[in-house]
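Table S5 (text form). Sequence records supplied for joint modeling of the four-component complex.
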Amino acid sequence: MSARTSNDHARDIPEATVARLPVYLRALITLAEQGIETCSSEELATAAGVNSAKLRKDLSYLGSYGTRGVGYDVEYLRYQIAREIGVTQDWPVVIVGIGNLGHALANYSGFRSRGFRVVALLDADPDRHDEVVAGVDVRPFSELEAIVVEHGVAIGVIATPALAAQDVADRMVDAGITSILNFAPTVLSVPDGVDVRKVDLSIELQILAYHVQRKAAANLVQAEEDSA
Amino acid sequence: MSARTSNDHARDIPEATVARLPVYLRALITLAEQGIETCSSEELATAAGVNSAKLRKDLSYLGSYGTRGVGYDVEYLRYQIAREIGVTQDWPVVIVGIGNLGHALANYSGFRSRGFRVVALLDADPDRHDEVVAGVDVRPFSELEAIVVEHGVAIGVIATPALAAQDVADRMVDAGITSILNFAPTVLSVPDGVDVRKVDLSIELQILAYHVQRKAAANLVQAEEDSA
DNA sequence: CTCAGTTTGTTCTCCCGTTCACAAACTCTT
DNA sequence: AAGAGTTTGTGAACGGGAGAACAAACTGAG
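The corresponding structure-token record, covering 456 residues in total, follows.
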């Protein structure tokens, strides 16, 4: 196993870099669609909305895929990033909670096009069972374990009300899911080794509200100073 | 104006802290609903899913609202954080793009309960106009300026397809909106002074996928070492 | 009043991430 | 072939946030 560090790249890509790789990937796909075959770090950085130095440093964690004096081959870099993230393969996903948000997620085309396949929609409400959303049957939540095992699901999405979310998460973990994307407005507690990412709409709005208020206060002070 | 720094708190709350304040606020609301009147930093930190030292440091940016040897008064701290974020007042919001996601957002109760009021739903598609979603009429996108001015809207939500998002953002900025929550999978460019927060579902999934892949690779290596 | 026990607010240190700046490496022209 | 012009990859400096640890400040018992 001593050969691993020399053969493989060092496997400690910083979290901040991991979070940006999908952005670079999307930018590269857009460039490729425009027929662009080569780009500099400056161009790609602009397309991704980041600093070019940061982009180069991020890419350097993956390896040395550019050519000095030339730039990056769009297709090649696109493949390398996709491979690094793992989106060259197919990821089965279950969504629990088929309310408004669950519907929106099930119908979201961005999942399928990035290699994520919704294999099941689960809901505790019997009235929703056998409804078909985005071509997938809604099944009882009790079938979670069976579906996870059958399809080898590693990623679960929680789109339930806040009160149900922790129970759902517990069941997911028991079933063998190791990564959870949580849209419910609650803090989940999970064992070590399970990743949780949360998307919280009202928190995002509150952060914006804080900044609006700040800007308003700053303007007020400015006006007072002007009149003084 | 020299009295301002002594009277006011220092107005440079770190961004990381601002992002956590809404989480603390939610935890406090939950505690209050349970009839709990006082809590220690340790208890609140657990409820919010953070380290207690970090919580105390975060709160110290707002002022000194606790009592040593006792803890925090839940109601009082709740109010202070709400005031600091600005959610004691009412924030009018416009949502542009009434697809699946737009519907889900319009119906999301977490907005209204946090002081965010959806004053308009806008869509470019004439077929959707005069549809009523969550009690609000869907109006033509062209009415954006008028609505922003009429209601004093400072926050806009973009839930359109990626291709339309930049145009929508430009129009929002022209109309006077200074904060944008973007759900479209694209990088927005806006002038200085305009805040953009993005929520990108497929990026979140890709980040999870990376970690799943990493864990799988680590397990593989472990198995090899065990068999050696 | 005093002392033991508790909990906050803050200082200090460490670490991660960002950015600058430049050497290394490539292309292209002459 | 050599030199001018580009662009990458990375070493080093810098800034901000996380966490440990402790002094300050409160409560309550005796």
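Note: The mean pLDDT of chain B is 93.
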